[in-house]
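Here is one chain, start to finish.
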Amino acid sequence: MVMERLVVTQYLYPCFLAPPPSLSFTDQYAFRPTGSPTAAIIHLLHAISLLLTTSPHVAVISLDFSKAFDIVRHSTLLDRLACLELPDEVYNWLVSFFEGHLHCTKFHQHASPIASIIQGSAVGPVAYIINMSNQNAIKPRNKIVKFADDTYIVVPTSNIHIHQAEINSIEQWARKNNLTVNPSEYAKIVFVTTAGRLKFRHPNHTGT
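Its structure:
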């Protein structure tokens, strides 16, 4: 565990500050030194408020990935790790760490699903957000905010006609990355402004 923490703090976290163009960590607020649920909420509300200065309403669509830590494909994760500015010996250590490194919990006769990302480890959660780092909005002005395996798509009035395309893009990304969007967790909130005050309509599941 000491070696894992060293790799995370000395090598992986610094890579988040200057990632390659294909990867981004600024929209992810879990499993990093500057991240927290509070930071994610503040960023989300700031994005909504900023868009409402030029848009009469803003839709926020939330999505959740089913058993996301359990089914991350190691080869895909390692491809993204290879894009980071890591010393060869650190990258090779990570390859060795994930090779055949699966996890499940057993209690009496019951066992949890086998997990490919170990949440109790130091490397596992950070590796998960690296795996998510190429998930982006497809349209300018639309925003993506992530917290662990939750993704929020922020869409202003001018782009509301393509909000389903943004959802489809996330679903396609999930299939390509061996993940599944939980259809029962889709929800949409529409924020509007009235007399300069921020209000919202009650959430409803998307598809309506």
